[in-house]
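Duplicate of #3305? Posting structure anyway:
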């Protein structure tokens, strides 16, 4: 039987239900309440938004989901894992400050924020998964300690995967720093000699002896010894170490799908996509361009693959916004996230590979709430 994807538009009447109330009704109609939340730890996976970016989800939406879970006896917490690139979310201290500044704090959401992979992105669990490319996914420990996973996803464009929805938020987002390096395939960091101050912090964190200081007191990497754990990235306080990205879009998408499977397999999970402020690029950017399409609505399902497919279809059914980066580049029939936005992203491979490994199905029944 085809899974059902439920959706609601953003249209409201004067004095009618607010968007927050519509979200609550959507979750109820999609039978999220059928999950046994009683005394269960519930990881609410969300992207808190990079500093300077204003297209991330408002914390008010998270509050609605938190209240929904608490009313049913659950113990929710908001979570995300360290980024692979330098920025305000590469360690838990800065990540929490960014989250709090964006309203994701106990006062604004009614629950705590726990960074999933620890202070420096190294607190992980190796999770067995029957993938074609990944056999042991490196997932943030707090995510795996949860009994239930709920993902709240800002649906948007992405410069490497074409679009970002439930699969990417769960797969890439729940990976520890080493996991993110594995998904990006190359798995080796790069050191910017101009930024390096020669403090030696990365040397002390490297368990493989892969980093040394040269005669100019600059850190250098022995790629043959490096195992791609990413500890050096978290250790560097001046952002002199970052990741290299050499994987093909097809391989990246496949690994993201396999990591998503590792996160949700064997436990209840539910997903909500917010197709609003559909920016052309990821919320990891410290800025955001104008949306590429009009706001569409909220979508929810137990099946993350069907959910993402439904959102792609809904986005492709509306015209591009005038003045956006895809304005005049392609018709709706060609697809906003492929030919128009990122022609080399091969975004369809994420969905097809997710089906192949049993994460979900691209077939769905759409039901309006």
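Output from current build:
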């Amino acid at each position: 039987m085809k899974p059902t994807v439920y959706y609601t538009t953003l249209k409201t009447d004067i004095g009618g239900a607010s968007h927050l109330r519509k979200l609550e009704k959507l979750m109820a109609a999609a039978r999220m309440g059928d999950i046994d939340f009683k005394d269960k730890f519930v990881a609410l996976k969300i992207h808190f938004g990079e500093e300077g970016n204003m297209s991330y989800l408002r914390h008010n939406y998270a509050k609605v989901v938190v209240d929904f879970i608490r009313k049913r006896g659950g113990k929710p917490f908001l979570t995300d894992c360290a980024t692979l690139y330098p920025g305000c979310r590469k360690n838990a201290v800065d990540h929490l400050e960014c989250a709090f500044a964006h309203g994701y704090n106990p006062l604004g959401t009614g629950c705590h924020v726990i960074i999933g992979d620890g202070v420096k992105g190294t607190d992980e669990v190796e999770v067995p998964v029957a993938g074609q490319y990944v056999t042991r996914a490196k997932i943030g420990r707090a995510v795996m300690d949860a009994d239930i996973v709920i993902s709240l996803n800002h649906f948007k464009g992405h410069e490497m995967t074409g679009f970002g929805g439930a699969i990417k938020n769960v797969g890439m987002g729940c990976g520890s720093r080493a996991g993110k390096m594995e998904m990006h395939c190359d798995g080796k960091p790069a050191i910017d000699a101009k930024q390096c101050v020669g403090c030696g912090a990365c040397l002390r964190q490297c368990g493989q002896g892969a980093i040394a200081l040269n005669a100019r007191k600059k850190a250098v990497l022995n790629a043959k010894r490096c195992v791609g754990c990413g500890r050096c990235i978290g250790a560097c306080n001046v952002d002199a170490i970052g990741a290299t990205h050499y994987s093909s879009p097809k391989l990246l998408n496949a690994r993201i799908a396999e990591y998503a499977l590792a996160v949700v397999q064997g436990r209840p999970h539910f997903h909500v996509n917010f197709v609003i402020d559909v920016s052309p690029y990821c919320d990891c950017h410290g800025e955001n361009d104008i949306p590429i399409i009009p706001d569409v609505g909220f979508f929810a399902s137990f099946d993350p693959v069907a959910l993402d497919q439904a959102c792609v279809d809904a986005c492709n059914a509306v015209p591009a916004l005038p003045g956006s980066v895809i304005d005049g580049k392609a018709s709706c029939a060609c697809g906003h996230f492929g030919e128009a936005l990122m022609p080399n992203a091969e975004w369809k491979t994420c969905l097809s590979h997710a089906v192949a490994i049993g994460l979900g199905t691209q077939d769905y029944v759409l039901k309006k709430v």
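Confirmed duplicate; merging threads. The chain has a mean pLDDT of 92. The longest strand covers residues 148-154.
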